[in-house]
Amino acid sequence: MIKFFRHIRKKLLSENKFSKYLLYAIGEIILVVIGILIALAINNWNEGRKESVQELTILHQLETEFKSNLKQLDQKISSKKETINSALQLFKYIDNANLRNKDSVNYHLVRTIPYTTFDPIINDLASSGELRLISNDSLKQKLTFWTSAIANVREDEIQWKDYRDNKYVPFLVKLYQLRTLRNLANKSNVLGKYLIEDTKENEELNIGLTKHTEDFDALLNHPDYEDHLERCLTKSRHSINQSIILRKRIIEILDVLKFELK
Which residues have CB under 8 Å from 170's CB, separation 6+? Predict the structure, then answer.
C-alpha cells in the first residue's frame, strides 16, 4: 500500500501536475489522520471495556464486603441490646431485693462484662487509585466517607473497653467471684458472639465453680455498683445509636451497588 501511494506521488510530480499532487497530498494526510483517529478510538474502546470489566469486579467485591459488614454490625447491635436488657434487669434487682436469685443475677452479670468489636472490611479504593473506575458519583462519595463513618462506633467500643478493664471488672473482682461467671460465659458461649469470628472453643472450656461465697446481695447493695451499671447502660445505648446510623449508610451503599449491578 505504501509503494502504491509512493508510485502515485512520483507520477504526479514527474508530470508536473502540482495542483493534483497537492490535492493528493492533502487527501493522503486526511487518510492518515482518519487512520490515527480510528486507531485511537479502538484503543479507547478497548481501554474502556477493560475498565468496565474492572469496575464490575470491584462492584461485586464491594457488595460481598458490605454484606459481610452489615451482618457483623447487626450481630454487634444485637449483643448491645442484650447488654442493655441485662443492665435494666440488674437495676430492677437493685431496687427490688425480693426479686433476686443467684442464677438470674449471674446470668445478667455475665452479659454486662463483654465489649463488642466492630472490625469491618475496609476497601480503601481512594489510596489504590481504583476509585476512579467507579462511574457512579454518589457511590464514590459514600465510599470516600466510609472509613470516617466507622470512627464513632469504634470510639464507643474503645471507651467502654477502657472503663470495663480499669474500673468495672476490678470492682467485680473486689465484690464478687468471677470464676463462676466466666464458667457460665464459656458454657453458653456468650463471649463468642462478641468476637469477629465466632468460635465454639470456649464452650468446651470448663473452669468449674468458685469455692468461695458469692454474695450477690453485697454487690447489688453497694452504692457504687449502680454507677458502674449506669456507665454500661449509657455506653451501650450510645453505641447502638451510632451503629444504627452506620447501618443506614451500609444499606445506602448496598442499594446503589444493587442498582449498578443490574
Answer: none
In the chain, the number of structural domains is 1
Q: What are the pLDDT digits (tens) for 195-250?
A: 545 455 544 577 777 777 778 999 999 999 999 999 999 999 999 999 999 999 99
Please give the residue range of the domain that contains residue 69: 2-260
pTM: 0.75
Note the pLDDT tens digit of each residue in 88-146: 999 999 999 999 999 999 999 999 998 877 877 776 665 566 778 888 888 888 888 88
pLDDT tens-digit readout, 182-206: 887 777 776 565 554 545 554 457 7
